[in-house]
Amino acid sequence: MRFIILALSSFSLFLCAACASQPAAPPTSAPAAAEPTRIAPVGVVTATRELATPAQAYVPSEPTNIALSATTPTPPEQTPLPGAPVPTDSPFVGNYSGILPAADALARVVALDLGVDGSALMTTQFIGKGAPIVESGTWSEVNDLAQVVLTVRDGQPQDNRLSWKLENNQLVPVEYDHAQYGATGLSLHRIGTGIIEQAEYGGVTFSYDTALAQSAQGSTQPAVPADPNVPALGGGAPVNIRFLFDHAAAPDYFNPHLPQVYVYPVAGLMALDPSVAQNVQTLQKILADKTVTPEQDIPIFPVMPASQVFHAQTRFLDFINGSGVSFITAYRQDATALTNQDLFYTFQGLTLDGAWYIAVYWNLSTPALPDTVEAAQKILPADATAEQFEAYLAQTVAILDTLPPAAFAPNLRLLDQLSQSIRAEPELESAAPAPNATAGAPTNANQSANAATSTFEFGGARLAFSSALAQSAQGYNIAAVPVNPNAPALGGGAPAHLAIGFNGDALTADAGPFQPAIRIYPTADLNALDPLVAQQVTALQTWLAAKPTTSDQPVPVLPIFNAQQMIHPQIKYLDFKNGQGVRLVTYYAQDVAPIANDGLFYTFQGLTADAKYYVTAFWPLRTDQLPNSYQEANIQDYDAFAKQFEAYLKTTSDQLNALPPDAFTPNLNALDEMIQSIQTPQ
Questions:
Q1: Per the confidence metrics, is the pTM higher than 0.70?
Q2: Between the N and C ends of the chain, which has fewer C-beta atoms within 10 Å?
Q3: Is residue 231 pLDDT above 80, yes or no?
Q4: Whose CA is closest to 164, among 153, 173, 155, 156?
Q5: DSSP SS3 for 7
C-alpha cells in the first residue's frame, strides 16, 4: 500500500534545477515499463495503462558547465607533453575520484585514471546534467609530481594541464587552471586504499578494501523460528553465518544500513515460511533470466516490513562460486521524498549448487539525495499529488542510474568487489529451523500455549499484553506539536499525550498505522487542536452511541490520514477498564489498487467513560487471504480491474469480515485482550 499525498497545492519544485536531464538507464538495467496511473477512488473507478505525467511537466535544460574554460584547437607546440610509459612501480598509478561542488548542479563527480602505460583519462559527471565530460591524454611522474596533460575533450582537441602530489592516497593539486577548478583546485582520493583484508569464518571467505572497514567478525547465528503470528515478518531465520565489521554491535532487529554479510541455507529459507520460499524462487528466476524490470521488486532476505520504493544501479555479478544481483534501494511505508537515511546497497545471490543464499548490506549516501527530511520536503512538498510523486520517483531513479560508482560513499566499485570475492562453502547444516516450542495448541485466549502475559505501567496508564504480540513495552511522554496552518488536521499536529510503544520502537507525535502503539490523548486538547479533529471526536461519540455493525461510511479514526478508508471489516465494540471503543481492520489508499498485506492494519478508537481521554491503538496485520503487495496481486488487465473496483472492494471486505480472529496475524483476540486491559490515567 502506498499513502499518496492529497493534492493541496501545486508542485513547484522537483529535484532542483540541477536534476535537469533524463539520462538513459545503464546497460545492465532493463528498460522502464509503463505503470498504471492510480486514480483516487472518490467516485471514480477508471484508469489507464499510460505512465502518469505531472500537470506541469519538468522540461530538462542542457548542461552548462560554467566552471570549465574554453578549449584551444591544439596543444601549444612549445610545451612538451609527458612521455610514456611511466615506471611500473610509480605510486601514482591507479584510480582516483572526488565529489566536488558545482555552480549549477547538486555536485560534480570527477574520476581520474592514471594508467601504467602513461595514459590519463578524466571524466566529470555533473549530477542530473546528462552525459559525463570525458577528457583524455597522457601523464608522467616528474620530481614526485604526477604531471597530466589532457589533450582531447569529448572528441575535440584541448590543452588542460594539471599536476598533483600524492599524500596519504590523496592527490593534492599543485598546478592547475584556477578559472576551471577554483582556488582550492581538484583534490581527488584514490578509490580504495589498495590495502586488502581477508575475512574468513566457518567456510565463508571474502576480501575487502580497508576503505570500507578495518576488520570483519564472523559468527554463527542460531535458528530463529518465524513468529507464527507474523509469518515472514517475525524475525525468523534458519541457522546462518553473519559477518559484522569494525566490531559493530547488531540491534535486536534487522537494520539494512548496518554493514553485514549473511550466508543462509536455501533449504532452511524455503522451509521457514511460504512467502520467504516465494522470494527465493523469484530471485532464482531473476538470476536465470538476468533481467529485472524497474517496477519489479528484487527480493531480499531478511524480509523487511515495508515496501521497496525503487531499485537503481542494478548489476548482475558473479562471485567465486555463484551469481547474484547488486543494487541500491530504499524501503518506505509512505510516499514522501527520499533522503540518504533511506538509501542502502545490497547484493542478493545464490551459489552455483543452489544450496546457499548470500546477502550483503551496506549504508550508502550520495549528493543526489538530501541528508534530512527537512531538505527533502523542499524537493517534494508534503502536499504533492500522486502524479507528482510518481514523476519525482521516476526522475530520482533516472538520475541515480546515470551516476558513476564514485558518486556514492562508499564507492559502489568497492562494494561490488567485496560481493564478487565471496566464496561460500559453509560448515552448517542446510536445514530448516526447529519448530517453535510456543506454537502449541491455542489457549482460551487464542495465544500460543507458552505465550507469557506481561503487565506494563507508565504515567498512570496500565495494560497487559501477550508475548505473542511483543517482548517489551516502553512509555513516552510526547510533547505537543501544532498543526501545519496550511494543512489543517493533516499537518501532523498533536496535543501533548502519553504513548506506549513496543519492542524498543521510538515513538514521536507522528502516529503511523504500521508502528504498533497505543496513545492516550486528552480529549479537550484534541478538540482545541483543529476543528476537523474536534469533528472527528464528535463523530466517534456518535458512532459509539449507535454501535453499527456495518456501515457504508468510514469509521472515525484519529489521526486523520491523508488517504481514504477503503474498507472497514471486523468491526467489534470493546470495553476497556474505564471506557469503550470500536476496533476494526482497515486499509487506506488514494489509488485504484488491490488490497494487500503491506497496507492492512488493526486500529482501536475509544473514549473513557468520562470522555476525558481519547484512546487509539494501531497494529500492522496480515492474512493469507490477501496478496502481500501490489506486485504480488499480479493484475493483468488494469482497466478491467478499475471498472470493477467498487465490487472488488465489497467482495474483499466481505471476505475479510467472514474470517475468524486467528486467520489474521497477529491474532485479533490477542489484540482485543490487550485493548480490554487498558486503564488510562485518572
A1: no
A2: C
A3: no
A4: 173
A5: coil
